[in-house]
Every structure is written in C-alpha cells, then in structure tokens.
Amino acid sequence: MTWATRFKLAFGTLAVLVVVAAATYVYTERESTAVSQTATISAHQLPVGTDYGGKVVRQFVEEGDAVVEGDVLFTIESLQRKRDLEADAKSAIDEDDEDAKDFEASPLWSVTASADGTVAVLHVGPGGYVPSGGIVAEVVQDGSLEVTAELVLNPRDLDRLEGGASVELRLPDRSIVPGTVGDVQVATEGGNARAYVTVDSGEIAGSEPTGLTAPGTPVQVTVDLRDDGPLAGMRDSARDFLHRIGI
Description:
Layout: H1 3-28, E1 33-35, E2 38-42, E3 45-49, E4 54-59, E5 66-67, E6 72-77, H2 79-94, H3 98-101, E7 108-112, E8 117-122, E9 129-130, E10 135-141, E11 146-153, H4 155-159, E12 166-170, E13 176-189, E14 192-200, H5 202-205, E15 220-224, H6 232-244
Antiparallel strand pairs: 1-15, 2-11, 3-10, 4-6, 4-9, 5-8, 6-7, 8-10, 11-14, 12-13, 12-15, 13-14
C-alpha cells in the first residue's frame, strides 16, 4: 500500500468519524428553549360589591376608566339603607342625643373602588337593580398584569426550567416583550410534566389592561432552559442506552 493510498484511507476514515460525530451531536442536541402550549395575560380582577341593595340612580365611570381607591363608581337608592339609618337615629334619640333629633336619613348609598386600577366590567347601569351583596363592577388592580403559561416538558427539560430564566413573550401583533419565569407549578401526565408558569414582565405589568394587554389575551411564551454544555445531550443518550440494556 502506497503512502498516497494510506493518506486517502486515513483522511476518509477521519471524515467519516467527523460526519458521524456531527450527526450524533445534532441528533442528541438538547433543546435550548421550551414553547408554551397555551398562554394568556391574566390579572388580579377585584369585584366591587354593595352592602345595600337598591336601584342605581347615578353612574360615575365607564369601562376602561382609571380609578383610585375610594372613587365613587355608583350611587344606589336603598330603602334598607334609609331604614338602618332611621333605626340608628331612634336609638340615639332614646339615649338623649340631641343632634339625632334633627337627623334626616338618606336612602342614598355610594359604591366605591376598593383599589387603584382600571374599570374592567360594569355589571349594572342607571335604573338597574342590585341585590344586597351584589357585584356591580370589576376593577383590574394596577400593576397586577402577568402572563400564565402551560408547557409540556420531559423530566430532563423540567429539571432545566429555573426560576428567573429569561422569557420571550410574543403578543398577537407579533411584537416581542421580555419577561422572566416566576412561580412554577408542576403536574405529571403520561411520563411528561405539565409546568404551569407565571411570567413576570415589567412592561406587561405597567400596561393598560386593554387591547393587546387585556386579561385573557392569548400570547406565545418561549422560555430559556438551563444550558448544561454541548455534550449534555450525548450524555443523556448514553445513559438512556445503558438503562435500556440494564446497566
């Protein structure tokens, strides 16, 4: 065998080894990210109720209006409110409270916002009746917007899902918003894990709860998984092979 033939043989063998190694690496390479099956924008939506039932006589806000804690949303005319005030006044008169003698009970009751936020839903309007304890409106609390996502992962990828990991949020208009992994809850199903992830994003939290960032808006979440090095996938395949043959 001549040196030229030996060189060609050695070069060919090396080339085959390189191709096999590259193919093995590509085949066993771990995914660096995980994409959500479902994801939506959510928020703390606070119900606003009334202690007294009655007829709505004034409405001070519309859906989408910003409110602060204590802002009046509705005025309700309530006979029960008037009866309660008259009963309190009578008790005061019986106790010789002179001021109570000139007291005139009003049936009007103000329903106010319980937190700073944005009016999301109005359940009643002027002329409508609200029962005692009924919900008249819902307010999205300021700064409470976040994203909740569901991901299906194998056990190894679940182990690589870490709190604080970088997240890319794709909104319906295809714009990209950054975020990080917050709370993670896991349920096992069919050998895989369903990870329910809360995504924190300052940009989302600071947005108005309308349009593209309204609660319930579907988004796509892409989470960065921990990088364990370029050979991690090959090590996983080797462990799986040894496990299958009982070693």
